[in-house]
Amino acid sequence: MESLDYISKNDYLKRYFEDIPREELRKHCRLVIYKPQNIIVKKGEHINFIGIIISGRALLVNEFANGNAYILKELKLLSIIGDIEIVSLAKGSACTIESIDECTLIAVDDKVFLKWMKLYHGFALHVARRLAERFHESSNENGKYMVYNSNYSLISTIINVVDNITGGKTAENFNIRLKNTRKELGERIGLNERTINRLLQKLKNENLISINSGKIYINNFQLQKLKELKENLQMDRRKI
């Protein structure tokens, strides 16, 4: 299947590219396939294309000079890569993007993308609206991190991990071991291992989790208390 076929069969893509002549789309849109765990974009490197994910998933990862890397977001179907950097004329990508599984993109070269924005005002409006939506979403996410402290983020993550293990259905009495490492927990919420260790110790001291030989355990009583604490934090936005 060619890129034009995907565009024709997807309502969102049809609206996004509706002002671009069909011949232009046929000439300049191409399919690019990345194997699992391949780098799509490396932080700091110049991006010379925009890509729209039409199958598979990718991770948005921020890497720091000290070697720490934090997963910021999972990019799913119809996520767009490279538009912010190209429109802003940035010299390099702010983050690394890595495929999770086999990932297919519809790609357009940066110069063509900018030419389309100049020639087709409807297309430029779609691009601007999409960027504004993402900025609004990002602002909301940043606001949540400002309102809810790191402890709230860790509590939410632990609850989600347990729910994923049990499918949301738990026996009356259980004691579950979390298989996630402290590093993995930190990557989910953008915290380093030292901070995660400190927060876990605080939860342990309050009998909200158990730690045995470095492993994290949680029973039904503790899970219920964590959920109640999370609800209270959502309601009054107070710090623990």
From TrEMBL:
<dbReference type="InterPro" id="IPR036388">
    <property type="entry name" value="WH-like_DNA-bd_sf"/>
</dbReference>
<keyword id="KW-0804">Transcription</keyword>
<keyword id="KW-0805">Transcription regulation</keyword>
<protein>
    <submittedName>
        <fullName>Transcriptional regulator, Crp/Fnr family</fullName>
    </submittedName>
</protein>
<dbReference type="Pfam" id="PF00027">
    <property type="entry name" value="cNMP_binding"/>
</dbReference>
<dbReference type="InterPro" id="IPR014710">
    <property type="entry name" value="RmlC-like_jellyroll"/>
</dbReference>
<dbReference type="GO" id="GO:0006355">
    <property type="term" value="P:regulation of DNA-templated transcription"/>
</dbReference>
<dbReference type="InterPro" id="IPR018490">
    <property type="entry name" value="cNMP-bd_dom_sf"/>
</dbReference>
<dbReference type="InterPro" id="IPR000595">
    <property type="entry name" value="cNMP-bd_dom"/>
</dbReference>
<dbReference type="InterPro" id="IPR036390">
    <property type="entry name" value="WH_DNA-bd_sf"/>
</dbReference>
<keyword id="KW-0238">DNA-binding</keyword>
<dbReference type="Pfam" id="PF13545">
    <property type="entry name" value="HTH_Crp_2"/>
</dbReference>
<feature type="domain" description="Cyclic nucleotide-binding">
    <location>
        <begin position="13"/>
        <end position="117"/>
    </location>
</feature>
<feature type="domain" description="HTH crp-type">
    <location>
        <begin position="148"/>
        <end position="222"/>
    </location>
</feature>
<dbReference type="GO" id="GO:0003677">
    <property type="term" value="F:DNA binding"/>
</dbReference>
<dbReference type="InterPro" id="IPR012318">
    <property type="entry name" value="HTH_CRP"/>
</dbReference>
